[in-house]
TrEMBL record:
Protein name: ATP-grasp domain-containing protein
Pfam family, one: ATP-grasp_4
PROSITE patterns for this protein: ATP_GRASP (PS50975)
InterPro entries in alphabetical order: ATP-dep_AA_Ligase, ATP-grasp, BL00235/CARNS1_N, LAL_C2
Lineage: Bacteria, Bacillati, Actinomycetota, Actinomycetes, Streptosporangiales
The keyword Electron transport appears for this protein: no
Length: 386
């Protein structure tokens, strides 16, 4: 998720100090993306204190023109460093709120913004009491990303099982279940002003995990008022904002917000569809510059995640054919024969991605249909492939 920022920074003549997990610096793709003057700082811990320690090492080696958190774990540390140095950033308040789903719910409640009914449960009895026997409801951990741990539960037994299986002492969030179309807003802000936004329509997998299987850009939705309300409530400064909501009959209801790069290659799809480079825009606002290339064109794009049957992969067909088709922007396959396809419980269980673009929705649908027909994964129960 961070490598695209490297190329945009290099295009602007910038040298980059990169903080990441030690193993990331061993990957060939990372080595290829790094410039000759870039510096690397391995960070072994997973908490924000570890990222702050890495930042201290980087700051000791030279001055900094901008700070970007490209992924969820370093949002808070990056915001703290940017604020300390007087550089543009989302702000510590926005970073803190984005990292905690309860903080979001309470802030949006105080701000009068639309969202599902919710309850902060410190134990299963509290969660059960709040439901009042009305099912289903959604339970989720306070922190985390990628739909990890988010579950729809239909009764007391499932609720007790979820609390038993979770590996955390922090409170849980219990929410009203909304079965309505899901969307996200991708926006770039500059000192609190929205300089670009687009809406993404989402398709999710089956209950109870609802992992996203497809994204379409742009969606025919007007979320400007909702976006401005969230930016104002967060006190959002400069950077990227990813806002998820459901389009309920009474109006949009906020699901959650993040002030970091959205996953699922959404920014790549925005560029494919609208010819807007949000990676470059984020680098620009982080360095106090005006973003360029933010006037959208009239194209459309889709991100599709294949979902083969769970089991051992014995064959993958159609990769070369799909890659060569007009409009196919990206094909990435993350499994090979012998790999295991797990049941789709979070975004970490995906096996690959295809991004397709077109000038019109009809052409996009035709191209997606061809991709789905030609790209195939054959799986068998574990062990049978040998």
């Amino acid at each position: 998720m961070g490598r695209p920022y490297l190329r945009r920074a290099h295009d602007r003549g910038l040298e980059v100090a990169v903080l990441d997990r030690p193993e990331a610096f061993t990957w060939p793709e990372t080595k290829e993306a790094l410039g000759p003057a870039d510096r690397t700082y391995p960070v072994s811990g997973r908490d924000y204190e570890a990222w702050l320690s890495g930042a201290s090492r980087a700051l000791a080696d030279g001055s900094v023109e901008g700070v970007i958190a490209f992924s969820e774990p370093h949002v808070l540390a990056a915001a703290m460093v940017a604020e300390e140095l007087g550089l543009p950033g989302p702000g510590v308040r926005a970073a803190l709120v984005s990292r905690n789903k309860v903080a979001q719910r309470e802030l949006f409640y105080r701000s009068g913004l639309p969202q599902p009914g919710f309850h902060v449960a410190r134990d299963v009895e509290s969660a059960l009491a709040w439901t009042g026997g009305s099912w289903p409801v959604v339970v989720k951990p306070v922190s985390g990303s990628g739909s990890l741990g988010v579950r729809i539960v239909h009764g007391e037994h499932e609720m007790r099982t979820w609390f038993t299986e979770r590996d955390s002492e922090e409170p849980a969030l219990v929410e009203e279940y909304l079965d309505h179309p899901e969307y996200s807003v991708e926006a770039v802000t500059d000192h609190g002003s929205v300089v670009f936004s687009s809406v993404t329509a989402k398709t999710t997998g089956p209950r109870p995990f609802f992992v996203e299987t497809e994204h379409r850009i742009p969606a025919d939705q007007d979320a400007d008022d909702l976006l401005r309300g969230v930016v104002r409530a967060l006190g959002m400064g400069s950077g990227i904002l990813h806002l998820e909501y459901r389009d309920a009959p009474g109006g949009p209801r906020i699901m959650e917000v993040a002030v970091r790069t959205p996953g699922d290659y959404i920014l790549d799809a925005v560029e494919a569809a609208l010819e807007v480079d949000l990676y470059d825009a984020v680098v620009a606002v982080a360095c106090g510059e005006q973003p360029s290339r933010i006037q959208p064109s009239q194209g459309t794009a889709a991100v599709w995640f294949p979902t083969p049957e769970p089991g051992e992969v014995v064959d993958i067909v159609g990769v070369d054919a799909v890659t060569s088709h007009e409009g196919v922007v990206k094909v990435e396959i993350d499994v090979e024969p012998g790999s295991t396809v797990h049941p789709m419980r979070s975004s970490m269980d995906r096996v690959g991605v295809v991004i397709v673009r077109a000038d019109t929705p009809d052409v996009l649908e035709a191209r997606l249909k061809t991709v789905r027909e030609e790209l195939g994964f054959r799986t068998v129960p574990p062990g049978e492939g040998r």
